[in-house]
Amino acid sequence: MRPYCNQCQYPEVTCICDDITVSTSPIDIVIIQHRKEHSHAKNTARLVSLVLKNAVTTFTDDEEAMTALAQRYTESNAALIYPHSNSNPLESTSKDDRGNLQTLIFIDGSWKQAYGIVKSFPWLEALPMFHFENAPRSNYRIRHTSVNNALSTLEAVAYSLECLCHSDVTNLYSAQEAMQRHFKSPPQHHRK
Are 120 and 144 in contact (CB under 8 A)? Predict the structure, then answer.
């Protein structure tokens, strides 16, 4: 069995602790992660929790934690980042529109998994929702999706903090880049 770093939880040979700069986000970050995503070594939700002190990840199969989230955020100052027929463009949300928003909730999983999570936990659909209208191109190169302009969870968190709080999120992007350097795919050989 490979030894793992106690701090970043990556295998010691791919430890990224030296590339992590810890900070606090102006808004709390909650990531609801699909159970199948937790086991992926290359998921970026883990990176968000390593970089941001006030970011937490909850797993959909942890009933107690999901119940606690529902009780905490049903009537509070939280919003869900998720493209929905009732969502508004994040980019056009002013500071006044933001009001007393204190928490952003993200879903970590494939598009199909994210849809299933929203449908499984109706309290999520009751929250104010935002989507990205002009998201930047993703720099996440490890896993692929057929959806155009899809961002990794880390990139979605970073972009949201840039739009809503004008935060410097360089440390988030640096962590993702460090992980990608450590998990580079082996070169592919083409037959002639």
Answer: no
154-157: long-range contacts at Cβ-Cβ below 8 A with a sequence spacing of 24 or more?
A: 154/44, 154/45, 154/47, 154/48, 155/44, 156/81, 156/106, 156/132, 157/29, 157/31, 157/48, 157/52, 157/55, 157/104, 157/106
Q: Compute the CA torsion angle 32, 57, 54, 140 (nearest 10 deg).
A: -80
Cβ atoms within 10 A of the Cβ of 109, count?
21
The closest alpha carbon to 140, from 179, 187, 107, belongs to: 179
Strand partners, 59: 33
* pLDDT higher than threshold 90 for residue 32: yes
Are 133 and 83 within 8 A, CB to CB?
no
Using CA atoms, how far residue 52 sits from 29, 113, 172, in Å, is 8, 24, 8
Residue 81 near residue 124, CB atoms below 8 Å: no
What percentage of the chain has pLDDT greater than the value 70? 83
Q: What element of type H or E holds 122?
A: helix 122-126
User: What element of type H or E holds 106?
Assistant: strand 103-108
This prediction's pTM: 0.87
Residue with tokens 């986000």: 25
Start-to-end Cα distance in the chain: 38
